[in-house]
Write a structure and sequence with these properties.
The protein is an alpha/beta fold and 152 residues long. It has helices at 58-73, 87-90, 107-119, and strands spanning 4-16, 29-41, 76-80, 98-101, 126-136, 139-144. The radius of gyration is 18 Å and the shape is elongated.
């Protein structure tokens, strides 16, 4: 059978600040992220399978991304857990959804994190091929499985 790549696109809003960064992004700011998830696999050729002809149902892929990424990161404030006085944020009324990450919340690091979150939830017959996280209209990062082998 033929290998096919399918892609589903998502959007979410998120604020972050980069600890120790030497530019404007050291301040709290937000982005309207565009997130693309591409899977690769063989479409089902089982005539009795309700998913016949599909690599994965786009609805199933959506459910995975919503659960693993969007429910957690959409409209959140994300910062490095090494941020000094981080506990003070929780006492402010407009910081209700704070995520402290064990890494600098850059596009690059978030993609590495997102790849693991999505990969663990995929059915065995499909594989994560690539991710793209667009932070602005002209800036994005990409993650490719071929560059980052997961153990089988």
């Amino acid at each position: 059978m033929t290998k096919i790549r399918i892609t589903k696109e998502f959007s979410f809003e998120m604020a972050h600040a980069l600890l120790g960064y030497d530019g404007k992004c050291s301040n709290i700011h937000g982005h309207s992220y565009q997130f693309s998830v591409t899977l690769i696999g063989e479409p089902s050729d089982n005539a009795s399978d309700p998913k016949n002809g599909m690599v994965i149902d786009f609805g199933d892929l959506k459910n995975i991304v919503v659960k693993e990424i969007l429910e957690k990161f959409d409209h959140a404030f994300v910062i490095n857990d090494a941020t000094p006085d981080r506990d003070k944020f929780s006492s402010l009324p407009f910081f209700k959804k704070i995520i402290f990450l064990p890494y600098q919340p850059t596009c690059e690091n978030m993609l590495a994190d997102f790849s693991g979150r999505i990969n663990k939830s995929l059915p065995g017959e499909v594989k994560l091929h690539s991710l793209r996280l667009r932070e602005t209209n002209n800036s994005y990062a990409e993650w490719f499985a071929d560059d980052n082998k997961y153990p089988d």
